Amino acid sequence: MRSDVTAAAAALGATFPGVTPPDAQALRDAQARQRDLTKPPGSLGRLEDVGCWVASCQGQCPPRELARVRVVVFAGDHGIARAGVSAFPPDVTAQMVRNFRRGGAAVNAIADSVGAGVRVVDVAVDGHLPGADRSVDDDAADHDADPVRAYKVRAASGRIDREDALSAEETITAIGAGRAIADEEVDAGADLLIAGDMGIGNTTPATAIVATLTGLEPVVAVGRGTGIDDAAWMRKTAAIRDAMFRARHFVGDPVALLRTIGGADLAAMAGFLAQASVRRTPVVLDGLIATAAALVAAQLAPGCPDWWLAGHRSAEPAHDAALERLHKQPLLDFGMRLGEGTGALTAVPVVRAAVATLSNMSTFADAGVSGAAD
Ligand SMILES: Cc1cc2ncn([C@H]3O[C@H](COP(=O)(O)O)[C@@H](O)[C@H]3O)c2cc1C
Ligand SMILES: O=C(O)c1cccnc1
Questions:
Q1: Is Transferase found in the keyword set (predicted)?
Q2: Gyration radius of the chain over CA positions
Q3: Which ligand is nearest to the CA of 341?
Q4: How far, in Å, are 261, 316, 319 from residue 179 at the CA level?
Q5: What are the DSSP calls for 92-113, one per residue?
Q6: Between 14 and which of 175, 314, 333, 343 could a Cys-Cys bridge form, CB atoms 3.0 to 4.6 Å apart?
Q7: CATH number, span 66-348
Q8: If pLDDT is split at 50, 70 and 90, which confidence band does 144 have?
Q9: Angle, nearest 10°, between helix axes 254-261 and 230-246?
Q10: Ligand 1 center to residue 316 CA distance, Å?
């Protein structure tokens, strides 16, 4: 039976109001201020662009220091994981959710180091897998009242090479869940949002979505995920080929794409990323999973990519294609391939440096420093 929360999420639906662009006047003010600061014009390189982007998102120059950076980790299992496409067993998803809650995952460590908050949402974790570690849920005394499960759509999305990931109703509920979560975060004062992922097998639907939307051949798009061997890579490539065939008519239909070859986590992330833009809140994109969801969100709510910055370039080949399609140049290129929001979080200090320089440096006039010779 549906909870009040998921019914409310479904009511939000997949039809988005228009996305308004970041503030053009604040952008011009920021660009002018960059020229007045005590440095040769342009000498801070892309840091200057990032600072200007934050100012335009905030609608003010100089921009405010980021006070509440939040990462929401969308956890969900995928039926395709049973096809041997990952180096790890599906049980790891639920086990990692427990690890996130205890603060022991990479996302927790990096978030702590950059002063960000982490929220985990179980949208489709499978708690009943054969051989699953049942003890992972022991921490939650009352499962129904557990906030991590408030937006649960289903247990594991469908096996996308053979069946739809979601029903039509589940797809709308999942998109609405992501929207509701973005609303909650913005209402609680978030000034920078990150979508993270946790779900064994999730590079398979993410790659299938990116390849479908960018026209990539599966053999070019498929990466090693958690570190699969050649045999698993061949199984994964076949699964992605079959999934792409099932979705071939849905290149222009983002809701159908999420339903056929996405999943509840990807749908919720897409809703979250689109709604952040509706709410005029900047986002740093993470790796392949988040960027696959972003490509779909860009179809759901045209104009939302203006509110996004690419945090890093994942080692996954399909991530590059997705970034290119979004015209995004990533801030970092560290060979990271973890997800969870870790790549985006690692880029947060760069964003903070961009804001700090634009806000706190003196102008030539204030500091009594001579400008460039005529
Ligand atoms: C311990 C562990 C922690 C993770 N944190 C994120 N992922 C990431 O790796 C998985 C995707 O790769 P694939 O498609 O190959 O399964 C997802 O769980 C993703 O969130 C993890 C994976 C593991 C094993
Ligand atoms: O780029 C990502 O987000 C990614 C890559 C590998 C495994 N999990 C996530």
A1: yes
A2: 21
A3: 2
A4: 20, 27, 24
A5: HHHHHHHHHHHT-SHHHHHHHH
A6: 175
A7: 3.40.50.10210
A8: low
A9: 140
A10: 12
DSSP label at residue 332: B
Q: CA-CA-CA-CA torsion for 334, 261, 193, 35, nearest 10 degrees? A: 60
Q: Tell me which residue of 195, 187, 188 sits closest to 308, measured CA to CA.
A: 195
Q: Nearest-CA neighbor of 16 among 306, 300, 250? A: 300
| Confidence band of 2 (pLDDT split at 50, 70, 90) | low
Three-state SS at 268 = helix
ω into 21 cis (within 30 of 0): no
Enumerate the domain spans of the chain.
Answer: 66-348
pLDDT tens for 50-86 read 999 999 999 999 999 999 999 999 999 999 999 999 9
Q: Among all ligands shown, which has an atom nearest to the Cα of 107? A: 1
Handedness of CA 21, 68, 189, 362 (dihedral sign): negative
Please say if 170 is a catalytic residue. no
Best mutation site among 202, 203, 345 for ligand 2 pocket (most ligand atoms within 8 Å of CB): 203
Using CA atoms, how far apart are residues 135 and 137, in angstroms rounded to an integer?
5
Total residue length of the chain: 374
Q: What is the pTM of this model?
A: 0.96
Which residues approach ligand 1 with their CB closer than 6 A?
86-88, 92, 96, 197-204, 225-226, 228, 338-340
354, 47 contact by CB (below 8 A): yes
What strands, in cross-sheet order, belong to the sheet with 116-124?
Answer: 116-124, 69-76, 192-198, 283-285, 308-310
Predicted-complex ipTM score: 0.99
Three-class SS of 191-237:
CEEEEEEECCCCHHHHHHHHHHHHCCCHHHHCCCCCCCCHHHHHHHH
Contact 342, 286 (CB under 8 A): yes
Q: What is the mean pLDDT of the chain?
A: 95
